[in-house]
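Lab manual, section 2.4: Encoding a predicted structure.

Procedure: take the sequence of the chain (166 residues), apply the prediction step described in section 2.3, and record the output as structure tokens. A sample record is shown.
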Amino acid sequence: MNSSSALLASRRSFSKKAAGHPYLKVRLDDRTPAILSLRYLQEAVVIPVPHLTPMPNLPPYLLGLIERRSRVLWAIDLPQLLQFPAWAFKAQNYNTVLVRVGGVAAGLVVPEIEGMVRLSNEQLSPLPASASPEIAPYARGCVGHPERLWVLDVSAILHSPLLHGT
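Recorded output:
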């Protein structure tokens, strides 16, 4: 079974086991977990570093281009896009979450993919006033128990003015 088939099978079995909306949990740095709605997730994959093609004269959060299933996608360093300090990259692979919103698709590169969680709408809280102005445009809210999880808005990320030059 390929990774897409496994993801779809996982979504089906996961949705039968628990109530709430499914999210993929990732780490933005050592202390900051975040979740992304599975609604926009196509695949979570490990991309070998040599399979990424760097492009010149781009901001540091645009790592380059990746090819996946006959499509060419931008690889976006999600923590850097959200103004987190650059993470010490030592591995030979990029943990990449392939997402699509309408006709816009990209690979969101994160230090770590931790698994799936389910949350009901009642568990989501609005962004706290202490949320950094860098993360606020890309977060729908947070969940505070047992640790604060930022609920990231994939659509806002993919349509960011930082990515489209406006």
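Check your result against the sample. The two ends are 41 Å apart (CA to CA).
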